Amino acid sequence: MFLMTRSAKKKQQQAAEMRNQMQPGTGVRTIGGMYATVKEIGDDTVLLEVAPGVHAVYAKNAIGAVLEDEEYNRIVHGDTDSGTEADAASDDLPVVPDDASSLVEPADGSADTAKPDLTKKTDADDAAKDDKTGGRTDGEADAK
Q1: 70-75: long-range contacts, CB 8 A cutoff, minimum separation 24
Q2: Is 81:37 a contact under the CB 8 Å cutoff?
Q3: In the sheet where 54-59 sits, what is the strand order?
Q4: By the 8 A CB rule, do 65 and 29 touch?
Q5: Could you report the per-residue pLDDT of 57-70, keeping only the tens digit for each?
Q6: 9, 15, 38, 44: which is deepest, by most CB within 10 A?
Q7: In this structure, are residues 75 and 58 in contact, taking their beta carbons and an 8 Å threshold?
Q8: Is pTM, for the whole model, over 0.90?
Q9: How many CB atoms lie within 10 A of CB 46?
């Protein structure tokens, strides 16, 4: 029991030390998973900029991690170091459009695709289907 409380106390001290390393301009991750930049630090609260011009006040205890500048920029802005193997591998990936323009027919009508029938099903359609299946449904068996 003593070892468990000592371990928990040590973790709390490490978390408090990590929160004391925060300075304005530091990138952080909250315990809820939100990434933000520290703007001001109070006694028990922290003013975070969660988006350009959007500020929120959080309790210091809500800060889950203080991030290095490189890690914060990589996660939030998608910045990567140029010339790395990851960049070379990403050049081989196919380009995916950001919009749905590739999913629609071109304006010149050159695409020759059949449009799906989206009309309501009528009773005549049901009767024609019953004639084909002999009035059985998928779950019925022929055995007596």
Answers
A1: 71/27, 72/27, 72/35, 72/37, 73/27, 75/35
A2: no
A3: 54-59, 45-51, 35-41, 27-30, 63-67
A4: yes
A5: 999 889 888 888 88
A6: 38
A7: no
A8: no
A9: 24
